[in-house]
Amino acid sequence: MSLDEHWFSEAYEDEGVAFSLRVRRTLLDEHTPYQHLQVFETSHWGNLMTLDGCVMLTSRDNFLYHEMMSHPALFTHPEPRRVLIIGGGDCGTLREVLRHPAVEQAVQVDIDEAVTRAAERFFPELTEANDDRRAELRFADGVAYVRDAAGGAFDVVIIDSTDPVGFAEGLFGAAFLTDVHRILADGGVLVQQSESPLLHGEGIIRNLHTALAEAGFAQRATLPFPVPSYPGGWWSATLAGKGVPVDCFREADAAAMPFPTQYYSPGVHRGALAPPPLLARAMAVGSGTFP
Ligand code: SAM
After folding, report:
1. Would you call 160 a catalytic residue per the annotation?
2. C or N: which end of the chain has fewer Cβ atoms within 10 Å?
3. Is pTM beyond 0.90 here?
4. Is the beta carbon of 56 within 6 A of some atom in ligand 1?
5. Phi and psi of 186, rounded to 5°?
6. Pairs from 58-62 (Cβ < 8 Å, separation ≥ 24)
7. pLDDT tens-digit map of 205-264
8. Is residue 183 within 6 Å of ligand 1 at its C-beta?
């Protein structure tokens, strides 16, 4: 990360690419017990939150990520009543989850309370549902929470994490995903943020499919979508079902959804289920399933 007088820049050195936003001022600069948390006011993208120099969200484009991390999974499950979010401390995914009338309980477990407190101050629109009686905010390590949770406790598990490094690395491994499989009820659905199809297709996305297969998830699909402020500008969410397909969803319910969206629609969902060949290859586990 570099910040000169007017620009925040996140350089993705391995790929020789950077994304920059013009900033007006620093709103928060805090070393939490876990990470370096900063919030900037930008000239055109509203506020920007970064963790350890990596863009987490901007006011302007976070809807793309939060809608695709929630609605495809919740419209895939026939009746998502109990939802667990691991990470997601900015609360944008939680807000989208709580828009679904079937949801009775939404537990969010982020390791770092400072992220949520910063979101309350600088992204209040994302935390507006936090007082909903169905929401439960916990601050703990998601790996430990899932390890200790009861079997079959959730219908949908959403892994809205930082990149797979440091304490977030475990959230991408087969041991953690095996625990997620255990705490999902039969017919449950997992969704995990899975980085960039362009930059991470052959690495993180392929490895994630291998780990999910090892954990018992035979049905999987990686849905691509744009997020201009993330490395490469093109991101993905990987769905996996516990004994259920994830390549079909409640299309009629999605068409009649009783809340507004800016990106998600049944057509967008259907389109995202048709992976481009480069992504289909990354999703294939073992030579026998290579498309
Ligand atoms: N949309 C973002 C992205 O892809 O860049 C992710 C946003 S969200 C703020 C990520 C959250 O994951 C952070 O608040 C971080 O504290 C949390 N996190 C990382 N590792 C975690 C773990 N092991 N348990 C719980 N939360 C974790």
Report:
1. yes
2. C
3. yes
4. yes
5. -55, 135
6. 58/21, 58/229, 59/123, 59/125, 60/229, 61/227, 61/228, 61/229, 62/90, 62/92, 62/123, 62/126
7. 999 999 999 999 999 999 999 999 999 999 999 999 999 999 999 999 999 999 999 999
8. no
